[in-house]
Fold:
Amino acid sequence: MTPDRLILPLFVAEGITEPRPVPSMPGVVQHTRDSLRRAVADAAALGLRGVMLFGVPVDKDARGSGALDPDGILTSAIADAKAEAGSSLAVMSDVCLDEFTDHGHCGLVGANGEILNDETVEIYAQMAVLHAEAGVDWVGPSGMMRGQVRAIRAALDAANHARVQIMAYSAKFNSAFYGPFRDAVNSSLVGDRSAYQ
Structure:
């Protein structure tokens, strides 16, 4: 195992002035934009393959509107990381709504509580293009919506971002490992933290 085979996940939070520890993951923090830049520079100096960025907005709503904000925390973090890293490592972004929704689900939720697949996929495609415009090298759709990769690829190509790659999740499981992740992104689905502390 060598550093160039590793990708470092980094969480960047809106509205904080100092890095904030993630209680369920000792040593992991939610970064400020400034500390994110330092972490990206460190990752590049260590020879890592890339960094995977997750945004933690202050405001969340049912549609995850912050995910499509061109000046939002994740889009800004992509631009910051790319400016810091240049071509020394790949800048990757999570394409999902769970960080941005007040209900914590990866997709839009209908009146009957069902996940709205097609409407969610449309937002993912828009997110991917927004991230590409901010300079991302890879997008990582993690919501496991039917047709998400095809829709994202078509949207990227149509917007002249054919160079942006897609790293799709081939499987995603509900496990205790997701507890700390949900903690890191201040998910509304964190629930009982005692299960993973």
